[in-house]
Amino acid sequence: MGLIEVSNFCKKFGTKQVHRGVSFSVKKGECLGLVGGSGTGKSVLLRSLIGLERPDSGKVIFDGKDLSELKERDFQEVRKRIGYAFQGGALFDSMTVFDNLAYPLREHTGFSEAKIKEKIAATLSSFGLSGNENVFPASLSGGMQKRVGLARAIILGPEVILYDEPTAGLDPFNTRKISEMILALKSTGVTSILVTHDMPIAFNVCDRIAMLVGGVIKAIGTVKEIEAQEGNYIAKFASGEMF
Questions:
Q1: What Cα–Cα distance (Å) separates residue 178 from each residue in 25, 43, 194, 202?
Q2: How many whole angstroms separate alpha carbon 151 and alpha carbon 160?
């Protein structure tokens, strides 16, 4: 079994059936790219791993535990192990960069304030964000907000990181910076799922790529396998032939 196993995931919103039996797995240390057209429910699958969405039927298994059966209070331990980099950064506007990063440390660790300050300084330095501790999110560029959001997602040292469109709307410089950060985190052995429309970054950082079409996974494979199969779903999506 993989560290993450999604089996026959079905989800409806109102009268719209979005997922019709999605199944895939992610091995420990692997980065899986999840691609597909807008509105295909990629982010819903990510959110189900931290309990923000529940399948109507099917299973979401993390490290052998069926998350679809957990009570809300039981997700606290899961969320310590899974970092989520939200698409818009999801920073607290009323908090400085420092306090945004300090929040999970204060909530989930027994660190002293001195240790928290040390941890945040090291994290911001590794993300090229030193000197922004007292800045509020509204004063940051979109690229910097995403980098702060990613820094907060990894501050607890999670085993899994979920990336939700981390490069959407970014200029080439910030896109490259985010790509480099994902690769650096991957080199530490972290397991990850990358939801993206940015096929160059998907091909650059992912071990395998899965294509979500019509509520199911239509194709999945390594980058080499995809490149060798002309005309498959993923190759067509990358070339702009689909959606």
A1: 24, 19, 12, 12
A2: 14
Q: Is 46 helix (H, G, I), strand (E, B) or coil?
A: helix
Residue extents of the structural domains in the chain: 4-90+159-239
Sign of the C-alpha dihedral computed for residues 122, 123, 124 and 128 taken in this order? positive
Tokens of 157: 């040292």
Give the span between the Cα atoms of 233 and 238, in whole angstroms: 9
Taking only the tens place, the pLDDT of each residue in 170-224 is 888 888 888 998 999 999 999 999 999 888 899 999 999 999 988 999 889 998 8
The pLDDT of residue 25: 96
Give the class (CATH, top level) of 4-90+159-239.
alpha beta
Cβ atoms within 10 Å, residue 238 = 19
For 117: left if phi > 0, alpha if psi spans -120 to 50, otherwise beta; the answer is alpha
Amino acid identity of 166? P
Which strand ranges, in their side-by-side order, compose the sheet holding 57-62?
A: 16-26, 4-13, 57-62, 65-66
User: Which residue has tokens 């939200």?
Assistant: 86
